[in-house]
Amino acid sequence: MARVESIEQDSWQASFSQSRQEGATRVLEEGGLLFLPHLAFGVGKTQKRLLSLDSVSLKAKNVSFDVRNGRVSGTSLQGPDAVALQDMLERFARQSLALVRSLLPHYAPSLEQARTSFRPVEASGRVSSWRKDDRRLHVDAFPSSPNQGKRLLRVFSNINPDGKDRVWHLGEAFEAVARRFLPLVPRPLPGFPRLLYALGITKSLRSEYDHIMLRIHDCMKADEKYQAAAVSTQLRLPPDSTWVVCTDCVSHAAVSGQFMMEQTFLLPVAGMLDPDRSPLRVLERMTGRTLT
Ligand code: SIN
Ligand code: FE
Questions:
Q1: Which ligand is nearest to the CA of 254?
Q2: Strand 4-6 relative to strand 33-36: parallel, antiparallel, unpaired?
Q3: pLDDT digit string (tens) for 178-216?
Q4: Which phi and psi angles does 138 have, rounded to 5°?
């Protein structure tokens, strides 16, 4: 069962002892979750208004912000509300970067900050296809954003204003998931990644690693029997708490909850304390091939 390590800190700028930093890094690399029950992402008066679906007119299920180009997408808000929304996303991007740098300094030199998101939609009611249904256990893999083996490190904060927990289930270890689903994954068609890229369907070339991770993600979600029978633990993540987890190796399902912030970081495998624990290396050992 995934280990959940609590860290009693209430500041985004905290300093951590070296043993705490190393311990936290190992927990993540071993497929655990860091839970900071007192680390709240404060939402001020102006931004509180955004915590209603009416004010955030959505085009997508999430509003996202990209620090790399300063763009917000997924909302049609205008004027002061749009400014408040962008401020909130930018602040979460800054604070989660500060947290990751101070808690996981080993990663700092090679870490890339990717998208920041605000998730205002109730997780239990998101109507979607089975493939997009995050209430089913899965490991994260994105069809349009191949990452060529880089780790997906994510910081989440529950900002629900009504005392509502975000409820997750955590499933079996990555090795067990891969042992079960890798045999069902066919080899990619030669030339297909180039075609996807040329058509603009992927933002970069989909490596064999990305192909396998996507197929594992899909096979997990599509397998009703697996979903019903897989051993999992429930985790209640209360408002004003924060958690950090590598969602590419931790099998997870978001069962319920509303209003959350999320920041994604990409970490090259070489930046890990123990690269052998990456999903890339696990899959390469299992297939006997280089996958990127
Ligand atoms: C997910 O990454 O599966 C969704 C997490 C969440 O919305 O709580
Ligand atoms: Fe996910």
A1: 1
A2: parallel
A3: 999 999 999 999 999 999 999 999 999 999 999 999 999
A4: -165, 165
CA-nearest residue for atom 7, ligand 1, is 254
How far, in Å, from the CA of 289 to the mean position of ligand 1? 31
Q: Which value, to the nearest 10 degrees, does the dihedral of the CA atoms of residues 266, 6, 140, 2 take?
A: 130
Decide: residue 137, CB within 10 A, 0-12 exposed, 13-18 middle, 19+ buried. buried
The residue whose CA is least distant from atom 5 of ligand 1 is 254
CA-wise closest residue to 289 among 223, 222, 226, 208:
208
Reported residue count of the chain is 292
pLDDT, tens only, 8-24: 999 999 999 999 999 99
- Ligand 1 pocket check for 255: Cβ under 6 Å: no
> In the block, which residue shows the tokens 């924060």?
242
Q: Give the SS3 label for residue 100.
A: helix
Regarding the beta carbon of 123 and ligand 1, being less than 6 Å apart is answered yes
Q: Which atom of ligand 1 is nearest to the CA of 123?
A: 7
Q: Is the CB of 134 under 6 A from ligand 1?
A: yes
Supply 168's token pair. 């997750």
